[in-house]
Amino acid sequence: MRLTALAAAALMTITPAWAQIDRVAIDKSAFSLGTLRPEDGALPRSLWTDTERNSVSDLLVTVPAAYDNPLNLELLRRVLLSPGEGPKDADNALAGQKLLKAAEAGFYSDAAQLANLAPSTNSEPALARVIAYQELMDGKTDVACARGEGLRDGRAAPFWIKLRFVCYVRAGEGAAADLTLNLLKRQDALTAEESARFTAFADGGEFAAPKGDISLFDWVMMHERGITIDRALLDRVGPGYTAAIARMRGLDPNLREVALLRSLSARTIGAEEAIELLDGMGTTELAGDVLTLSAVPPGSLEYAEALGTALRRGGADAAGFEARARLLAGDLRRATPITNFAPNATEIALAAMITDQPRVAEAWITALASDQSRPTGLDRARRLVDIYAIIDSEAASRIGSFIGMVEEPRSVPSVTAYNANPSVPVASLVAAALPAAEAGSEGPAALVYLTGLSTTEDGEGGIRNAVITWARDKADLGWMDHKATFDVELRAVLDEPAPQVAAAPQPTGN
């Protein structure tokens, strides 16, 4: 099965990723570039105002790239991929540091896209590393090897030496590989476990995926050795590797579909790319749903039913529902409720809320309120308005006025989700917080907050919590509390059995 025609049609409704890149002036640094627009969650352009280069660099070293709570990862995405003027004296080394952190967090495609905008990366090793990171993640090792070979500066950094080692092994240059491996060992650039894996890779010995965390070069060596990518591996890797699995043509399409949905939820893959990837997944459930939507007339009852079915596939899985909503954002705009009958209104309205389409949500909620096929339509519409008020009180108030509600702003509980295995000492958190407090802008404060979530207490929990509280307020992170409450309500609605509705009204004639 091919979805080429569908992909072409769907892509017309999605702003291309390259068009979303906000090119602030690229003078001596690519730091100011970003892929996010305000509707994507971009932070204010002033997020780095009055910051110093070295303090931001220290923060980028300290802040973790992995989080147990998806909302914390979303905050990191917003900080690292929002456009805005950089710190004083920002250079491409700092830009590369920021983009590398984004790549390590899973957003390696976005990061490489921005790094590629720099005039020349051969003389910018920090930016070249970000691009090579993407090439290695996506199995383009030959291209990464050529990039490393053409690099003029920074070749002595451990990253580039590790890359040369892999390239020598691939080329069958055993002597050069051995010399390079010995160089890495002399520089203490490998842990004992890494050293054993690198040696096994060079010698052709038994090689398997590490039982713990997987590094970039573990991933490359696994790919070179043809290590099986299965569901067990998918379930334990982070967002970046999950996205790489979704992009890996030739794997089991059903495994790729699971990875794709997770990547849509984490926003490491966008709707435009997801539609293109589905084009090569054959007859998976998700590809079938998308193909069905292409075969029925937009605006028809059948279209709304197909859309509702596609959205409901994940059951009570809120992350899966959110992923499907993002994938089908363009389809939401092509669905139209019919008078007094809206059996799929709940799913379509919730998806419209998630994808920031208030007019679509309004159309389906008001249709639900007047739905004559169910006696509880008005009550359900009012509940949806209450849920919408959590994340968009203005839109909810407008919709509520159409169905006789007076919607008041809703307070939500504060949510702070710490990482399960904290590793940052309190002293490091305080050292990062002091220059951030002096700058007073949102970017550093958000990074301090994220660092605090991975800080050990060690008897100094009061200091840690005080820093986290300050950072939350300074970075204006109330939206995270609202999103967390919305997700709770979303799961509750999805967990309810589907309401029984009467048959669709039939047209009458003489």
Features:
510 residues, mainly alpha, 0% strand
How would you portray this structure in words?
There is one protein chain. This protein has 510 residues and is mostly helical. Helix content is 60%, strand content 0%. It contains 27 helices and no strands. It has helices at 4-11, 17-20, 53-62, 70-81, 92-115, 125-137, 141-150, 158-170, 174-186, 192-203, 216-225, 231-234, 239-246, 253-266, 271-278, 285-295, 301-312, 318-327, 329-334, 345-354, 358-369, 377-391, 393-402, 426-439, 442-452, 461-475, 478-494. The longest helix is centred in the N-terminal third of the chain and has 24 residues, at 92-115.
Q: What would you call the structural class?
A: mainly alpha
Sheet with the most strands, sense and barrel status: none
Number of strands: 0
The ordered string of helix (H) and strand (E) elements is HHHHHHHHHHHHHHHHHHHHHHHHHHH
Poorly predicted spans: 1-20
Number of helices: 27
- Please tell me the overall pLDDT: 90
Instruction: State the end-to-end CA separation.
Output: 44 Å
